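S1.2 Input.
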Amino acid sequence: MTMHGNERAGFSRPPPPQQMARQRTTLALIATAALAVSTAIAATVVSIGIARAGEIAASSGGGHIAVAVFLGIVFAGMGGLIAVTAMHGAGKPHED
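S1.3 Output.
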């Protein structure tokens, strides 16, 4: 075994800062596009669900609309709470 065999052992060098910045930018663009597509799909599904709920409520006397509104308010509140929590913890460094 030669002394030069150790050159290939271990981890490789990290990529240069320009390449890392390009990778981060690409990943952020992909994540943003995925979020936009997911939001469009969710809005379509919710719209279809509201339309169907309206048909059911019209045929059953309208008692279910209160439950739908309540659930909508609960989900909106949960989303707001998560957003506030994420914004509050964004400036703190992570402890590993």
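S1.4 Remarks. DSSP finds two helices and no strands in the chain.
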